[in-house]
């Protein structure tokens, strides 16, 4: 089953959820809500160092568990899942962490781009269409569809042969 829709960009531009989330929106860290604020800050930083976090778009209530590693879309589960500076950047702005995460949402390749204030655990983010991964996933989808069509063709051919073998060919075979 393909992971993406055939015309991802059109879906990104037309679906209401993407229209809302493609605007700069307020976000907040939603992990460990039952813990004191200082512990939540420490856990947030620890989560980021491990390459993941739970962040919410406040206006829509959309909760996302984001992965901040270059191999996030890969099926290679043995790959190193440590974040790069490109995905988790503590250095470009004092007191903030800038984040970037690629993933597939509702059959569309997107990139989550935002920042979080390290004191308040709130910030701003948006989704953008991820053209680079959309092309890759589109090619994967085409290959899967081609392989599926070939399997269906082979199955239908074997079914046809099986049916031919079951049918009698001569009048004497029909009498028996």
From TrEMBL:
Gene3D superfamilies membership: Core binding factor, beta subunit
Membrane-traversing stretches: none
Keywords recorded for this protein, A-Z: Nucleus
SUPFAM superfamilies named among the record's database cross-references: Core binding factor beta, CBF
UniProt GO cellular component terms: core-binding factor complex
Keyword Nucleus part of the UniProt annotation: yes
Gene Ontology terms: biological process: regulation of transcription by RNA polymerase II
Pfam families tied to this protein: CBF_beta (PF02312)
Keyword Transmembrane set for record: no
Locations listed in the record: Nucleus
GO molecular function terms listed in the Swiss-Prot or TrEMBL record: sequence-specific DNA binding; transcription coactivator activity
PANTHER family in the record: CORE-BINDING FACTOR SUBUNIT BETA (PTHR10276:SF3), CORE-BINDING FACTOR, BETA SUBUNIT (PTHR10276)
Family that this chain belongs to: Belongs to the CBF-beta family.
Descriptive protein name: Core-binding factor subunit beta
Annotated gene: 100638518
